[in-house]
Specification:
Largest sheet: 4 strands, antiparallel
Strand content: 15-25%
Helix content: 25-40%
Number of helices: 3
Order of helices and strands: EHHEHEE
Structural class: alpha+beta
Number of strands: 4
Distance between the termini: 51 Å
Shape: globular
Length: 98
């Protein structure tokens, strides 16, 4: 005998990739040992879609407010970007969920 299966498609309730435990924030903290250029270059090197000029704007925000969220998304990617920035010598806040 033949068993037929039916796949029911459910309506999307969030953007693609919006699951997996919600968004995680990668936060860089201000410190007294990294230069603006180094912070900007590190952010531009490791965070997708950020160029050096945008990295510099983020570095200025870090300097003026003490910290900035540089990326938000899936936990696995957040861990990867956090580790890259940390290895580059930036002062990182612990990963946090949005």
């Amino acid at each position: 005998y033949v068993v037929a299966t039916v796949t029911e498609e459910k309506e999307r309730t969030q953007l693609p990739g919006g699951g997996l435990g919600g968004d995680w924030r990668v936060v860089v903290l201000n410190d007294s040992h990294n230069t603006f250029d180094h912070v900007a270059n590190a952010i531009a090197s490791f965070i997708p879609g950020v160029n050096f000029e945008q990295g510099y704007e983020i570095a200025n925000k870090i300097h003026s407010s003490g910290q900035a969220i540089v990326w938000s998304g899936h936990k696995e990617a957040a861990e990867h970007y956090w580790e890259q920035l940390n290895t580059a010598g930036l002062t990182m806040a612990p990963l946090e969920r949005s």
